[in-house]
Design brief:
Keywords: Membrane, Transmembrane, Transmembrane helix. The chain is an alpha+beta fold. About 45% of the residues lie in helices and about 25% in strands. It has one domain. The termini are far apart.
């Protein structure tokens, strides 16, 4: 007794197409998330570097304005100073990063 089955490969082809499409979508989503994370990390460390450069520049000055704005090649820095705290807001690629640092001007008294 030989059983002969009649049927096509349409169901099998649809199954493989669905399976490979699902795997492709997962790989594509993982790539997109990795790329987004890399861009976010780069922007964060760029903002952190700009803040450090600004603070090191401020420490060399004897007088600090209450607020100001500086243009860097990668973004825009805005700051406010209230005698104890230096608030720094950096805009990079339409995203804002905010840093705070305790900072007081050192007053040097001249002894005669």
């Amino acid at each position: 007794m030989k059983n002969r089955h009649k049927g096509g490969i349409l169901l099998t082809a649809l199954l493989f197409t669905f399976l490979f499409s699902f795997i492709f979508i997962l790989v594509l989503e993982d790539f997109k998330l990795s790329q987004h994370f890399s861009v976010q990390t780069k922007d964060y460390y760029t903002a952190k570097t700009i803040a450090r450069l600004f603070v090191s520049t401020i420490k060399k000055q004897k007088v600090i304005e209450k607020s100001g704005r500086q243009q860097f090649s990668e973004g825009i820095l805005e700051y406010e100073y209230d005698k104890k705290t230096l608030k720094i807001i950096i805009n990079i690629n339409k995203k804002y990063y905010q840093f705070q640092e305790r900072y007081q001007l050192e007053t040097v008294e001249s002894s005669k």
